[in-house]
Amino acid sequence: MTGSRLEAAKWGLVYLGAMRADFRARAAAAALLALACGGRTAAVRPTEAQAWATAPDAAAESLLVDVRSVDSTIVVDARYATPDNFTGQPLPGYEAPRVLLRREPAAALGRVQARLRTGGLGLKVFDGYRPVRATLAMVDWAERTGRRELVDSGYIARRSRHNLGVAVDLTMVDPASGSEVPMGTPFDTFTPEAHTANATGRVRRYRQILVQVMESEGFRNYEREWWHFSYPVPGAVAFDRAIR
Question: Are 8 and 118 found together in one domain?
Answer without folding.
Answer: no
